[in-house]
């Protein structure tokens, strides 16, 4: 005996298959309308977790990129500050050269000394350069003005005290990659401590000592003393200071080189981040986005199936033996 | 021996009557084709006892047929198919209920999206990064604190959506819109007993009462020699309904009643043979479960007591919630699997007594065997505690050196353990952010050499690293912010991704389970229909046969009448 098929069975089966058709259709439609193939975690649990992870990577790359941009700006400020210090120092150097060859009268030398004082103030102004409200040569004490701009003859060491520190400020420029963006200008300028360096003594090759002596500021203060003839300084000592000044200039140049290298590194990091971010975004797309072509084809197929189910249902359910029994 | 002249007439009459009954039954079948629980009925026809006529044949007695007898009308039910269908129905409803709630949990996550917790966490790490760039910017400090609080609030509200505002102190579940609250409230609505005599109770009570009443009527009818097919159909429908709620086992008794075991409770029947029931059938609330069940006695004893005992037995054996859920089956099983249970009852609510109705809830005891909601909550709590741990104990990037904050960034609003429900940014920081942060004022007292400008300024001296770094230590003033920013993609992020994947897998499993069970349900429904259902085409064919039978039998009468007429006319002359 063949299995009996009752109209209720046909109804049940039809409703079940139409419902499942509808579900698939709705799901494909959701994928098409949202543009995402993962709309709930249950659509693809691993894919959902992966897409969250990739998305946060993309966000992180964006934030590294903005760090890099800030870092470049920071380095540029530093670079221009250093450049103006260098120009000023060169000007002072020519004053020293003029003073050292012994042709200048003491009065003229004293005028030059006053000029040097002006330049000291100028150098400290450049060293007080700020970026976005932060002193860039103040170590990580970014709110502290590193050097006061005062430059009078009286009590020079207290005017040249360093108010910052030598700490590094690092920016994150990639996953577990940090780069120091600030430059240590204190290692060039020092704190103006001329102790023991008056006269002809070498300043230690331009390196700032632990007591802050030996820096550019100390050299400049000594030059001032030598020009003024105060604190045991004499015009004859100026020649020695020329050597000291040159070593200070070369220390300054090496800081400039460091800043330049930092800028280069940041530029490279920037293009690397762009590449990484792009590739992460492509991956996000692969995991998360709907393949429109496939989905559209799938949608049409499912739609056709759904319509066929509806049509055949209408045809089958309409007919029974009843249709053929006439009074 | 002579044959009665009217034998033929009687034989034809039995044919007409049988055809009449068959036509009635076919009519009944057709009109009830779509009635739930209706099983196709057939008239049981047997040949009428034959009449022995002696001596008219060399072969001995001649047996003369005397027509047809309709001995009764039976339905085509197959108890095994019924049982299989109910088992499947329980599984389908269980899967359906689980799917519904898991979908809700999944929707509450709002992932993957640009506004879920994952995106908020990304923004949070981003804000730390901005702070690292501008350690003395008040805006950047405020952003960190506020985004931290936003993340906290998202955790809080997700936890509330899962478990209600205070899972340890549930109020009336009907007033609790959380997912656990809805599960509790569905459980209550199912298990509730009637509050007064004659009143109706929860779904389970009503189904059981319905079956008990029908049991009683069927026993009465059968004792009176009737075959109450319609009542049996109704009882079948009631049993089908009951199987939505949990696993049903039906035992047929000789008096026509059924004994029903329900929800994995095998020691005590939910509905018993109505022996000893007072005249008039069961009277709510006591008569169907309490007073005549083997346990007997006061309301709340009998089946309800056995149901309650099932929890304590399972708890003693450390049966997992999902395993007890399988034993119970149906919607109730699914609810247990979702909410978990303890020795004293379902979820963290006591079980109400059947007869007393639910007027108050027992002292809550947290589920000792956690259900799905509990497991999901535990994972979420883990993410929250990972986050707090990670932020409160920043590690210097690339090293294992830990910086110690003077005061934690994240705290628990109550208790000492940070959970999703209690995660919050410390109130000192929130206050500092709300009243406005003045970095200059603070920095003048800490600079130079403070290595924690980024956080020192926010904290108003509560978040500084300790001990304060000196110039020689070479720590930079944005290092806390820098280390916090490096937590992007760290422990908390990974834990959260795993959490999303866990919920996704659960929901995906529930979806698959639901569609599988639905497909099986359709199959077995069809199988049952094939045996028990009404096939209209067949009924039409039957109708024609029966109509012709009727006409033929009438024709026999007609022929007999003609024969008699001719006999009478001879006699008359």
Keywords for this structure?
heterodimer; A: 327 residues; mainly alpha; f41 fragment of flagellin, N-terminal domain; two-stranded antiparallel ribbon; two-stranded antiparallel sheet; 4 strands; rod-shaped; B: 573 residues; 3 domains; 17 helices; 12 strands; 55% helix
Could you characterize what this model shows?
The complex is a heterodimer of chains A (327) and B (573). Chain A is rod-shaped. Chain A is built from 8 helices and 4 strands. Chain A starts with 6 loop residues before the first helix and ends in a 9-residue tail after the last helix. With 327 residues, chain A is mainly alpha-helical. Chain A has a domain of 227 residues: Up-down Bundle (f41 fragment of flagellin, N-terminal domain). With 573 residues, chain B is mainly alpha-helical. Chain B contains 17 helices and 12 strands. In chain B, the strands form 6 sheets. In chain B, strands 1-4 form a two-stranded antiparallel sheet. A two-stranded antiparallel sheet of chain B has the order 2-3. In chain B, strands 5-6 form a two-stranded antiparallel sheet. In chain B, a hairpin with a 2-residue loop joins strand 7 and strand 8. The longest helix of chain B is centred in the C-terminal third of the chain and has 42 residues. The radius of gyration of chain B is 38 Å and the shape is elongated. The interface between A and B is large, with 65 and 84 residues.
